[in-house]
Specification:
Helix content is 42%, strand content 3%. By secondary structure, the chain is mainly α. The chain has a two-stranded antiparallel sheet. A hairpin with a 4-residue loop joins strand 1 and strand 2. Keywords: Heme, Iron, Metal-binding.
């Protein structure tokens, strides 16, 4: 026989609250056990945590309204530069070749280790040793338009300049960057005790790069002939001397993290450091390949000669090393020389 006991409502509430408290503590205890050793290192959970530390942006969060329209157009300019402002651009003729910004700043500047642009809005104005002065963000944008893209500067009040800056502001505002965030800068490469080899790089280029960028480095145009599917890496329509990519170490850092494009993922590499340096040496070997010249003879990079990057290959230098060694290495003696003077060299 079952007896029903009438319980005061006050005590019913107490019982319910006690049950909730016990359940919550049980869940917390279970979670704590998992966090303290329930998930082995290298599991899917730990890999996810590592991947989350890479810089990332959710472009689905671009706002609505006129500011959002500017952000969207700025992103389109990054992805489809030649279509909008290239030699046959629908909105102006500013760049002199058919390369897109995203050829170097991959995924419109959001990809880790690929000249990532997430911090650019916060980082400028900034002193630039190459120019020997403080540059605004707009000036830095025009550097890219004029150097790798062989163009003329965008007017500072143009829709294009304003939209690119709006997009970069969105990247900056949308990012959650802290000391643990990876991928904001290019990957480092270990500098060997020997010079990078253009001849060995030529063999590696044929093995890994030629299928996309062609034997003669001219790249491959997209079917519409508006822009490149694979950009040129040398030739009169490629980036010119004075571009960041024309420095062997700088290019090697980018190659290590990004090429071949179908054999790398953010944070994982395919080429060794030495291979990346050798391929960069071959691509940037101006004795083997043509490149566009600067449009003015008045241009002077690194006017303060002691601030020159170690792999910048045009003298004069304030150290005893040749143009050949500055371009191809070995770089360690150059680094040791400047560190011996209490100066951290630019790499």
């Amino acid at each position: 026989m079952i007896k029903y006991i009438k319980v005061n409502k006050k005590y019913q509430y107490v019982v319910i609250l006690f049950a909730i408290f016990v359940l919550a503590n049980s869940v917390q205890l279970f979670s704590s056990c998992n966090a303290n050793g329930g998930t082995p290192a290298g599991s899917a959970d730990s890999v996810t945590t590592a991947a989350d530390s890479l810089v990332s942006i959710d472009t689905a969060k671009i706002p609505h309204g006129k500011y959002g329209d500017a952000v969207k157009y700025g992103r389109q300019l990054m992805l489809h530069t030649a279509y909008y402002i290239g030699p046959n651009g629908v909105n102006g003729h500013y760049t002199g070749n058919k390369m897109n910004c995203t050829n170097c700043h991959r995924d419109a500047g959001t990809r880790p280790y690929a000249f990532n642009l997430v911090r650019s809005f916060k980082d400028y104005p900034q002193y630039r040793a190459r120019e020997g002065r403080i540059l605004s963000l707009a000036e830095r944008i025009n550097n890219c338009v004029m150097r790798p893209n062989l163009g003329r500067p965008l007017p500072l009040d143009s829709r294009e300049m304003v939209s690119i800056m709006a997009y970069l502001k969105f990247l900056s505002d949308s990012s959650h960057v802290d000391a643990r965030t990876k991928g904001l800068k290019n990957m480092t490469v270990e500098l060997p005790d020997v010079a990078a080899s253009s001849d060995h790089g030529e063999k590696l280029y044929a093995q890994h790069c030629e299928r996309c960028h062609a034997k003669n480095g001219e790249g491959k145009m997209a079917f519409d002939n508006v822009a490149y599917q694979y950009p040129p890496v040398w030739g009169l329509l490629a980036y010119r001397p004075g571009s960041s990519m024309h420095r062997v170490v700088k290019l090697a850092q980018w190659l290590k993290a990004n090429m071949p494009y179908d054999k790398t993922t953010p944070g994982t590499t395919f080429l060794t450091d030495a291979e990346a340096l050798d391929i960069a040496a071959y691509i940037n070997d101006d004795k083997k390949h043509q490149r566009p010249a600067a449009k003015t003879t008045k241009e002077e990079d690194y006017p303060n000669h002691e601030e020159k990057a170690i792999d910048y290959d045009k003298g004069p230098f304030k150290d005893p090393f040749s143009e050949q060694q500055h371009k191809y290495g070995p770089y360690k003696p150059i680094i040791d020389y400047w560190e011996g003077k209490g100066i951290t060299p630019v790499i």
